[in-house]
Fold:
Amino acid sequence: MAQRGADTSDVSLLASASSAQRAASRAGSASSRARRRTGSAEAVTYDFRRPIQLSREHSRILQLGFDGFARQATTVFTSSLRTVCQVTLLSIEQRSYAEYVDSLEPATYLTMFAADPMPGLGVLEIPLVATMSCVDHMLGGPGNADQPQRPLTEIESGVIGGLIERLLSEMRYSLAGIVPLEPTVTGVEYSPQFAQVAGAADVMVVSTFEMRVDDRAHRMTVCLPFSGLLPHLASAAAPAPASDRERAKRAQAAEVLAARFATVPLEVAVRFRPTQLGPDALSSLEPGDVLRLSHPASAPLDVTVDDTTFAHATAGAQGQRLAALIVGTRKEIR
Structure:
């Protein structure tokens, strides 16, 4: 009896444990569903005064170009700093210049460059902490995270200037398929509010990158004028003109297709116009009965394929066979 009571107690404990596990599982799944619902319900700000003009095709073209720039920038940073670096493209967005400036830190290293042949100026922005860390690495230091928040000295500007020139050169190479850029540095600014690159309401294309030096991640941005990019994006998205050889192949394919269509067998029917009968008259029909058709004697017959009338004809005979003479299409009769 004691053994049986112990077994019963063990079973009840196991049942209670399994019930608790099921309850916890249901609670976890409910919370995960709630998180998914909350995440999917996030609202996105939309300004009806400035509709989105950067199409999906244009975004894809820019993504291909800036993905290449991110790979080249990884090589530039790694070889220049002599440490493990990684640059990854995060997003490409359309913003006003005022929105872009507000998204930057109060103190940053902002390089302005002429984006010939595009009108206006472009911006390559690297956070000041990351810039000082890069200078520290290039001068033989450890590149610690604790860096001074101040403008660069003349020597430091010369050191980082070579790195910026290499990055702009790689940008020219990566975007060559979109626009033949010839970037030239026009100035450096540490406060984004004082950088006179564009008007506050001017539309810009902002590419955001994650720049990882050792195990520290920083944000790097490239800002280009949308009005200057748009004609080049439209040209890049347009289909390439067909060569004479391609046009000849297309014409030959059209001829072959037309010839094959001309030999496709079709079931053609020559019909009178339909005559309506009631159920009583239809059920009482017997062999030898004569029906009055609703087809006028002066009207041509319908020539149909798959119940579609495409021509008209008159009844006739050719030798011992019934025949029909095409008198015109439906469009011609109308």
Observations:
- The chain has a mean pLDDT of 81.
- The first strand starts at residue 85 and ends at 96.
- Residues 267-284+291-334 form a domain with the Surface presentation of antigens (SPOA) fold (CATH 2.30.330.10).
- The CA atoms of residues 130 and 218 lie 7 Å apart.
